[in-house]
Amino acid sequence: MSEGIPSHLESLRITWLSEPFHLGIPIIDLQHIWLVHIILELEELILNSDQTGTDVDVNDSFRKALDYVSVHFALEEDILEHFNYPGYDKHVKGHRQFVQRLTAKFFEAKNNKLAALGILQILKKWLFQHILHDDNDYAEYFKNQNTDLKTYCNEILRSGKYPVSKEQLLIYQNIIQMETAPINIQEHSIDVIQEIKNIWKTYNLATDIPIIDLQHIWLLKTIVELDHSLRLGDEVTVTFQKVINSAIEYTKDHFGVEDKIMKYFRYTDVIQHMNQHKRFIDFIKTRNDEYKQGNPRAGLHLVQDLRNWLLSHIAFEDKKIGLAFRNRVREISEFTKKLHQNGEVNITKEQKNLYKLVMQKDAVEMD
Fold first, then answer.
1. Residue 58 near residue 105, CB atoms below 8 Å
2. What distance in Å separates the CA atoms of residue 228 and residue 234, rounded to the nearest whole number?
3. What is the pTM for the complete model shown?
4. Can you tell me the mean pLDDT for 176-201?
5. CA dist., res. 153 & res. 170, Å (int)
6. What pLDDT score does 182 carry?
7. What is the pLDDT of residue 361?
8. Which of 236, 237, 205, 243 has the alpha carbon at shortest distance from 221?
9. Alpha-carbon distance 243 to 229, whole Å?
10. Measured in Å, how far apart are the chain's first and last C-alpha atoms?
11. CA separation, residue 95 to residues 102, 204, 314 (Å)
12. What is the pLDDT of residue 242?
């Protein structure tokens, strides 16, 4: 088997051709083929685990699934919004619900095997319910409208906003076998800002409390940068140490601000929330110790921990703070403005600029 071609290529081809997944939109078809690949790869992991009696390493499959949804959903929503698809809002709602179900399956599982089975179940359900129905609906709509998707898809692909890997290209070309004369899909380097935007939007991470969102976006930047270094096979020594230092600063600045807000505005679940903050500090220390001891997977483990933090804590627990104080955002902004003026919270110009780019806002309310 050639490098980059999965052992289950024939199963992938049969699955793709046996169901009407083909939308005739090459970049979307490429991403859907990649989803089928993730599903078959996960099935192989579970089968091997059953045969050998070993544990399933579900983290890699979960990361691939999350990477898939952050890029695919962002691209698909870009296309639907650009062409004013009438079912846009409903389609986006389906995307957000899928992310919630996927992460819940992972975090509610009591062991890796259950987590793997849960992820496999929800990915298959998504493939056969959403793609075969909802995605076909918009493809049929655009076809009936004689919409020129090709020109716009070429434009956004040339922009590099939605990265396509060599492996994805190779699998797509082997499955489609170039029969449909696809548009020019090229590999692009990762745009860090765009990837942050994709993850932020897809995982619905906004709390709508400016200072909290600003600090979460800054943490997301460090995760994307480390993940990028690991994927490229770069020397990660400097990046790892930079991320560790950023995480330590994050615990001081961000947790300090959150704790002050929760106490001042009498958040009801403050003790449990602060206990979770202690968990973050613990895993940062663990990964730093791993790295100092020469564990070559310390960087990967750190990315996994930080991504899990995004989805288990920020997307759920911190969102609760946003919901609890949704009518007091202006008061909180005034409160954090005073903290900033008194030097109790550090907000850099770079953090502000990144926040504006991701949130697409002209001003930061804690100035």
1. no
2. 9
3. 0.77
4. 68
5. 19
6. 54
7. 60
8. 243
9. 11
10. 57
11. 11, 10, 18
12. 83
